[in-house]
Design a protein that fits this description.
heterodimer, A: mainly alpha, ABC transporter involved in vitamin B12 uptake, BtuC, about 75% helix, B: mainly alpha, two-stranded antiparallel sheet
């Protein structure tokens, strides 16, 4: 493989043109409402680059990343799990409820919470997997239905069975997790920073777990027999079946592992900040994560970048309120980035195929 | 059953449904099961879902998966609220259709023009639409035109009417008698129930509802009985074959997707203008997704998707109106499960039949233990019913053969 300038241009063409296009679209949206885009971007950048915002961005990206891994594993197997939202909600609820019932040594307790959350998430996703292989029910529909059912079920359980009364508060919440079940922040990363700059924030312990999960995802999907079978049944189910891959088994396993990872994605904030599942539990994470997975092209490293980008936009756009712009602008930015990047990649890869086939044709003609 | 003609079979199904509802009502005393109000709100609630599903039908029949229906509905609802409050409901409706179609045009450019993965583009549209609606609403609230950052001013209502002589209403100043309504009040078993449902479906119906419902058979006629419809469907089944016969596949796909957005936008605007009287954030509440589910449930056919939408509408109406009626529905579920177990036993499918019997027992247990179901369970009903129907029903679903497959002109082998 020779590195030619042309190859470098081609490699850069897609991300650069996507970035330009999405900045253009967002600027147009701002200009349409008579706001200055440069001022908006400047404010976002200044706010987003402060230490406390960076920490928040990393923490926020942790949940995005883990949830995106959960979705990517099904995409790789040719499935689509829209149900991450429900799986992570139920996982977090049960983990908080049961996790507060016992005390274990510090690390073991958190492990136990992980296991509860992963089991619940995995079982909830298994319903969709089993319905698909046994009854041929499309997993897109069943996971959408399961999301709504999970929403109702968690609201019912929280309000009727899992809640503890707190004086003078209308919030419904589970019992607080004992100290051994609370996850410490990665304080060694922030200990040299100025207290006033961090505003007392620390990087979640789950951040390290997310990195480990990302590496494990890469290894399992790209370097193991299981990962090969998973991708094979995703790319060409018939060929996979002919060569001895049990596709039904793969579907169920992919769904269960996706649900189990989804179960973990609900935990970062719960373990580090709220220490309980309450009414304020973040909604919509499982849906945003679909976009993160798609933007990161379902690769471990790609999703790391996309989750950081989405998280940065979300955190830094809060500053827009100061200059009288609706912070919701970040939805437009996220959508514009997603759409323009997939279009750019599609166009560039088509152009690349054309270039290569022309070169081949020339080589054959010369020979 | 099989050797009956289709209309006769449908009539028989309808009779079976009404008969079991009346019986359950007699046993449990849940009078709302067959009340006029339930039937009319079921109709009202199933229209937006049916419109989303019809939208999905056009798009997917032309071979483009449209998961962006939710976003297009949001845009439609917003457009309906924005223009509706300013220039009246009919203009609002039109604006909703246009807004939905605009969202769909974006989807069409990405998927058909650039060959982007259909799901990716759809998800992006859902994000953009939700963000755009919120962004624009905030601006309108800040400059004082809107009552809240998530709510439009009130929209004038569009008139309602009934069938002349049969179900009331007013025609040119003449007040029509209400035959169905008077029979519905009589409390005759089965007869009053039937007329009560008919009265609900035909009386005090918005003109928009009439238009919406008539779009279902119209779509059927258009897709299955016109040359354009045949070409559009061929683009979703075998685009390269269609291309070789001179069909402009791109045009068909663009048309399918843009019409799809128009329907979704119509459904959204219906929510803002007819089902409510203003736009509100999250008004669509996932109905785009439910519409997609109704489409697949209905096997990518107009009649089927209308049945799916009706099922959702009915369950939704019951949970909104009367929680005890849902409780009574458990009895119906138990009946249905026992019947289903019996059918499967005859076919010697023992596993399915055991599962159905277990579900029947579970439903009866629930019926006895809870005198009234907790609210959260009630809201889950439509989704559980869909899962049960899909999981236990016979699976003869077949989607358009080239649905979701990116197509390039001249790319056939």
């Amino acid at each position: 493989m020779k590195v030619t300038p042309k190859k470098i241009y081609l490699a850069l063409a897609a991300p650069v043109s996507a970035a330009v296009a999405s900045i253009l679209i967002s600027s147009l949206a701002l200009l349409a409402t008579k706001k200055s885009p440069t001022e908006a971007f400047k404010t976002m950048w200044e706010f987003g680059a402060t230490t406390s915002s960076v920490i928040e961005t990393l923490n926020n990206a942790t949940s995005y990343y883990i949830a995106a891994l959960a979705i990517a594993i099904t995409f790789r197997a040719g499935l689509f799990n829209i149900g991450v939202e429900g799986q992570l909600r139920l996982g977090a609820l049960f983990a908080c409820y049961f996790g507060a019932m016992f005390t274990l040594p510090p690390v073991l307790h958190i492990l136990a919470i992980f296991i509860i959350s992963m089991t619940v998430g995995g079982l909830w996703a298994a319903i969709a997997g089993i319905l698909k292989v046994k009854r041929g029910v499309n997993e897109v529909i069943s996971t959408i239905m399961l999301n709504s059912i999970a929403g109702g079920l968690s609201a019912y359980l929280l309000s009727k069975h899992f809640t503890v009364k707190i004086e003078g508060s209308n919030n419904l919440t589970t019992q607080e997790l004992p100290a051994s079940g609370q996850m410490p922040n990665l304080s060694f990363l922030t200990k040299n920073l100025d207290q006033s700059a961090t505003q007392g924030r620390g990087i979640y312990g789950m951040f390290a777990i997310a990195i480990a999960l990302g590496i494990a995802f890469w290894w399992i999907v790209n370097r193991t027999r299981f990962g090969f079978e998973l991708r094979a049944s995703g790319i060409n189910p018939i060929a996979a079946r002919v060569s001895g891959v049990n596709s039904k088994r793969m579907i169920v396993i992919a769904m269960i592992s996706s649900g189990a990872i989804a179960g973990l994605s609900g935990l970062p904030t719960v373990l580090a900040e709220t220490h309980a599942y309450n009414l304020g539990f973040r909604a919509g994470l499982g849906f945003s994560a679909i976009a993160v997975a798609l933007l990161g092209r379902n690769s471990a490293i790609g999703m790391a970048f996309s989750s950081l980008l989405f998280s940065f936009l979300e955190v830094s756009s809060r500053s827009l309120d100061l200059i009288d712009i609706a912070p919701e602008t970040y939805f437009i930015m996220q959508g514009a980035i997603l759409l323009s990047s997939v279009i750019a990649f599609e166009v560039v890869s088509r152009y690349r195929v054309k270039v290569v086939s022309e070169q081949l044709a020339k080589a054959v003609a010369n020979a | 059953m099989r050797n009956l003609a289709k209309p006769a079979r449908l009539a028989l199904y309808a009779f079976a449904i009404v008969f079991s509802l009346s019986t359950i009502k007699l046993i449990t005393g849940a009078s709302d099961l067959t009340s006029v109000g339930t039937a009319s709100s079921a109709l009202l609630l199933s229209v937006p879902i049916a419109m989303a599903a019809l939208g999905g039908l056009f798009s997917e029949r032309s071979g483009v998966v449209n998961i962006g229906l939710e976003g297009m509905m949001i845009m439609g609802a917003w457009g309906g609220g924005f223009i509706g409050a300013k220039h009246g409901p009919w203009a609002g409706l039109l604006a909703g259709i246009v807004m939905g179609a605009l969202g769909a045009a974006l989807h069409a450019i990405a998927t058909v023009g650039f060959g982007v993965d259909h799901v990716v583009s759809g998800v992006a549209i859902n994000i953009i639409a939700a963000g755009l609606a919120r962004y624009l609403s905030t601006i309108l609230y800040k400059n004082g035109t809107w009552v809240g950052p998530s709510q439009s001013p009130d929209i004038q209502s569009i008139g309602v009417n009934g069938l002349p002589i049969l179900s009331g209403g007013t025609y040119f100043g003449w007040k029509s008698p209400d035959l169905f309504g008077s029979i519905a009040e009589k409390n005759w078993f089965l007869i009053s129930d039937t007329f009560s449902i008919l009265r609900g479906l035909t009386g005090e119906v918005s003109y928009v509802t009439v238009i919406a419902i008539s779009l279902v058979p119209l779509s059927y006629w258009f897709l299955w009985h016109t040359a354009f419809g045949l070409r559009l469907r061929s683009a979703g089944e075998a685009p390269t074959a269609a291309e070789s016969l001179g069909v402009n596949v791109y045009l068909m796909k663009y048309a399918g997707v843009i019409v799809s957005g128009g329907f979704a936008g119509f459904g959204g605007a219906f929510l803002a203008i007819v089902a409510s009287n203003h736009y509100q954030e999250n008004q669509t509440g996932g109905r785009g997704y439910i519409g997609l589910a109704a489409l697949i449930f209905g096997n990518w056919r107009p009649g089927g998707l209308m049945t799916g939408a009706g099922l959702f509408g009915f369950a939704d109406a019951l949970q909104l109106r009367d929680a005890t009626a849902i409780h009574a529905l458990l009895m119906l579920l138990a009946f249905a499960m026992v019947f289903f177990a019996f059918l499967n036993l005859k076919k010697k499918k023992f596993a399915t039949s055991v599962i159905s019997l277990a579900l029947a027992t579970f439903a009866i247990w629930l019926y006895i233990t809870f005198t009234e179901l907790p609210g959260q369970f009630v809201t889950m009903t439509p989704y559980i019913v869909t899962l049960l129907v899909l999981g236990l029903g016979t699976q003869r679903l077949r989607m358009p053969a080239a649905d979701g497959v990116p197509y390039r002109k001249g790319g056939g082998k």
